[in-house]
Amino acid sequence: MSTLQPPSTREFPSESIEKQVYSIVEKYKAYIPIENDRNRLGFYLYKYILNEGEPPIKSIPYSKVLLRDITKEELADKLQADLDQISK
């Protein structure tokens, strides 16, 4: 039995809102070591930017991310400051 290659994925254009949000979360990978946690949090924050979700202070516990060396309040403040810079 052989294993097939995973399907290829397309990257978001660099100016897209999705790419900007996921890049913000990726900046904090020292605090969020698990890649799937970062992706999940990125999704919650993307929904927030579209006015369909909760702010970072609520998105962090909802996404159940494992944090290292930072409190959720500190991370939420940093994320909020970065999200405020995104142009819609």
Helix content: 40-55%
Shape call? globular
Low-confidence stretches: none
Task: Report the major sheet.
Answer: none
Structural class: mainly alpha
Q: How much of the sequence is in beta strands?
A: under 5%
Distance between the termini: 48 Å
What is the count of helical runs?
4
Integer tally of domains? 1
Averaged pLDDT = 91
What's the number of extended β-strand segments?
0
Secondary-structure element series? HHHH
Q: How is this structure best described in words?
A:
This protein is about 50% helix and about 0% strand. The protein has about 90 residues and is an all-alpha fold. The chain has one domain. α1 (about 15-25) crosses α2 (about 35-50), α2 (about 35-50) runs antiparallel to α3 (about 55-65) and α3 packs across α4 (about 70-85). The longest helix is centred in the middle third of the chain and has 15 residues, at about 35-50.
Key phrases:
88 residues; 4 helices; mainly alpha; single chain
Topology:
Blueprint lengths: L16 H11 L7 H15 L6 H8 L8 H12 L5
Write a concise synopsis of the structure shown.
This protein is mainly α and 88 residues long.
